[in-house]
Design goal:
574 residues; alpha/beta; Trna Endonuclease, Chain: A, domain 1; 3 domains; four-stranded mixed β-sheet; 29 helices; 14% strand
């Protein structure tokens, strides 16, 4: 739980203070990163606290919920301080500046605060409010709201608060809890080794270490030794096969030290005993060389005393930033994918922690290739990215471009407050229903095409957006998912919607064939205009059936199925 009391909060927002001139700005940036789950650059873009800010400390447009959120941030040093109705009334007055597009344009033209003016322009704020985006005020503070403040909030429906208790309840740590690996003593007496301290005061040891010692390191088989790594063991890759071949050839063991690039490790502390040729490391981790060490471990019976590996050990203490930099920059043997470079990113680690808390270990969110889990459901974050890209952002035509998911599209996909464990699980569940249903498409080649699943996922999202209940589900799927019988109700509703939509899709495909213009799916599913045309045709047909009462809307079916399942549960013998 974060300590929001002053002065402890100074340590909490220390990283943000490097980018902001005041503690109030840094505190709001911290909230946007940790509660709204924005990337640091996007959080900084939202902050406009400063001279002539007109009471507006931050601006954020949520494209999923179609809301504009106006932030006011108050950081108090006295822990006994509370916020009453006076501050909230002032904030309510601030929000009147956003009541309509004309007021927003007037605010933009009157402020001398270049950050506020630039943010209004960047978000095209007047335009999106004219389109129907709802304006909400978010009052952020590190203390509690008193009874007068709470009473005022019952009448101020356009203001929500993120007070001390609310922030504490919503906070999910982004830090990974690294397992203790204990103390390990290396015998480095056979060859000379060196130790030095760099100009920044970081201690390093470089030594040839026997493979017989390395395979005894704790945590190889469980993966704990590789916890900070960008990925776990990848199995039989080309590089790993070549390493195994070198291990199997005993005559080459004496030369292995010359062939191999070495292993990079980090530790909390390192004790040197040159006289006896010993290095003693506390809480040791491998940040580069996971594949090599895993290969050595797998062939342990073939290893001889002549097989040595060059090892670099860096003392990072508790400096996680230095550890991450070493991990990022030292990986260069097996091909590193953009996904790997985000495996220790706060957004990903926070999501993994949240999955663990919400689903009690039954659902595992995999953020590193090769991670080991015995959970009932494993959701890989690259699949989650494709799902969110298709379902939330309406871009199924980009889902095949894996190199973009954790690069140029990463912020759009993951850096949004609504992206949480509940959302990812719900959309993944719908995706699994799509996978089951795709076989009902009459055109087998089209049904088996990779992008078809993501296209169907996009279609069902667009169909949901045609009703108020469906829009609410898209905004907050967790509220539906975690209702009594929620998963069972969702299962039935999505099954029926997919059945209806696939029927309409089959009809559209057949109509195109009759007109001599069959769907060129290998090209059209990669084209945004073509996808939009086909989506409108299918969803339009579905809407007509709903309006004529031929099929149930999502809203009506959810209500009916929930009532039926609840009644069945009540009537069942205990």
């Amino acid at each position: 739980m974060p300590d929001l009391t002053y002065p402890s909060i100074q340590a909490l927002i220390a990283r943000q203070m490097k980018r902001h001139t005041t503690e109030s700005r840094a505190f709001l940036a911290w909230v946007l990163e940790n509660i709204y789950r924005l990337e640091d650059a996007e959080a900084d873009d939202c902050v406009c606290d400063g001279p002539d800010d007109k009471g507006v400390d931050g601006l954020y447009a949520n494209m999923t919920s179609e809301t504009v959120e106006i932030f006011q941030s108050k950081l108090y040093q006295k822990t006994t301080r509370t916020v009453g109705d006076a501050a909230l009334r002032d904030f309510a007055g601030t929000l009147t500046q956003f009541k309509d597009p004309e007021s927003i344009i007037k605010l933009r033209d009157s402020t001398r605060n270049h950050e506020l003016r630039g943010r209004i322009d960047e978000l095209k704020l007047a335009n999106i409010v004219a389109q129907g985006y709802e304006v909400k005020g978010v009052f952020v503070t590190n203390v509690e709201i008193d009874s007068n403040g709470r009473e005022f909030l019952t009448r101020a429906e356009d203001i929500i608060t993120l007070s001390k208790a609310e922030i504490e309840s919503l906070y999910v740590p982004a830090e990974r809890t690294r397992p203790e690996t204990g103390t390990f003593q290396f015998d480095v007496s056979r060859y000379d080794f060196i130790t030095y301290t760099n100009p920044q005061g970081v201690s390093v040891a470089i030594a040839p270490i026997s493979a017989t010692q390395l395979i005894e390191l704790p945590g190889i088989d469980s993966g704990a030794l590789f916890e900070p790594n960008l990925r776990q063991s990848l199995g039989r890759t080309k590089v790993n096969k070549e390493i195994v071949q070198s291990i199997d050839d005993v005559s080459e063991h004496g030369q292995f030290l010359l062939y191999h690039n070495g292993i990079t490790m980090v530790c909390e502390s390192l004790t040197e005993d040159k006289q006896n040729g010993k290095l003693v490391a506390d809480n040791l981790y491998v940040v580069n060389g996971c594949q090599s060490l895993s290969s050595l471990f797998a062939r342990k019976s073939e290893i001889t005393d002549d097989l040595f590996v060059l090892v670099k050990i860096v003392v990072v203490g508790e400096d996680s930033e230095l550890l991450d930099k070493i991990t990022y920059r030292s990986n260069n043997q097996n091909v590193i994918k953009p996904r790997d470079f985000k495996s220790n990113h706060p957004i990903q680690t926070r999501l993994q922690n949240e999955f663990l808390n919400v689903f009690n270990g039954k659902v595992f969110y995999e953020i590193k290739r090769g991670e080991i889990s015995d959970a009932e459901v494993v959701i890989e974050n690259d699949l989650a990215a494709r799902i969110l890209l298709s379902f939330d952002l309406g871009q199924p035509y980009t889902a095949h471009q894996s190199y973009k998911l954790f690069d140029e599209l990463y912020t759009d996909i993951f850096s949004r407050p609504e992206v949480n464990a509940g959302r990812i699980f719900a959309t993944h569940f719908i995706y699994q229903k799509v996978v089951e249903c795709v076989g009902n498409i009459n055109d087998t080649a089209f049904a088996n095409y990779t992008l078809t699943k993501f296209f169907l996922l996009h279609i069902i999202a667009e169909a949901l957006r045609t009703t108020d209940g469906g829009k609410e589900f898209i905004r907050r799927p967790g509220q539906y998912l975690f209702q009594e019988k929620g998963l069972e109700v969702l299962d039935r509703c999505i099954d029926d919607m997919l059945s209806d939509l696939v029927t309409d899709l089959n009809g559209e495909l057949e109509e195109r064939v009759r007109n001599g213009q069959p769907l060129d799916f290998k090209r059209e599913l990669k084209n945004s205009t073509a996808v939009g045309t086909l989506t409108r045709a299918v969803v339009g047909s579905y809407q007509k059936l709903v309006s004529r009462g031929r099929v149930e809307s999502f809203d009506d079916e959810w209500s009916r199925v929930k009532t039926e399942l609840t009644a069945d549960a009540a009537s069942s013998p205990t």
